[in-house]
Design goal:
single chain; mainly beta; 2 helices
């Protein structure tokens, strides 16, 4: 199943040492991301919503809109496999016979002091998201995040800005 996956030096990618899940829960705007198969058709309105389940896992709901205005939803379940590394979550999108056998790494690389933004990545650096509690991040914050991502081994030119409002017709 891992054929064709890039293997890079993962030793330099560090996650947050502490993650307050209660502060992390809720709605986030995906203001920038590295496009992948599941979000390539998203034209605007990229959001992620995280809700705590009774079993301690996290329900994930990703939504966006296509150019035609059709809403897309992708649901998943996330969890922290090792409490000693709270920034290294796993997320599973594909249930098989009621079990979630295939899980992807969802690493929280950075959060703002008040959880006003978050930077999420993957150890192979092929995935990345910049999340914000507001539809847009201030340019100076975004620029500083871009610089830090470059320092982590990401190529920020791989990220695309995600408009939150529908395009104007005309």
């Amino acid at each position: 199943f891992l054929i064709g996956m890039e293997v890079e030096d993962q030793s330099q990618l560090k996650t947050v040492e502490e993650l307050d899940i209660d502060k992390y829960l809720g709605e986030w705007y995906a203001v920038a991301s590295i496009p992948r198969f599941f979000n390539r058709s998203c034209a605007w309105g990229n959001k992620a919503e995280y809700r705590l389940r009774d079993d301690g896992r996290i329900d994930v709901l990703n939504t966006c809109y296509t150019e035609e205005g059709k809403k897309r939803e992708v649901r998943a379940v996330g969890w922290v496999p090792d409490r000693l590394e709270p920034g290294k979550l796993k997320v599973s999108f594909l249930p098989l016979f009621g079990y979630r056998l295939f899980a992807a790494d969802y690493w929280v690389l950075e959060v703002g002091d008040d959880y006003e933004y978050a930077v999420v990545g993957h150890p192979n650096r092929n995935f990345g998201w910049i999340l914000s509690r507001k539809p847009e991040l201030e340019p100076e914050i975004l620029e500083a995040i871009a610089d830090r991502l470059e320092g982590m081994g990401y190529d920020f030119s791989d990220f695309e800005m995600n408009p939150q409002a529908p395009p104007e017709k005309g």
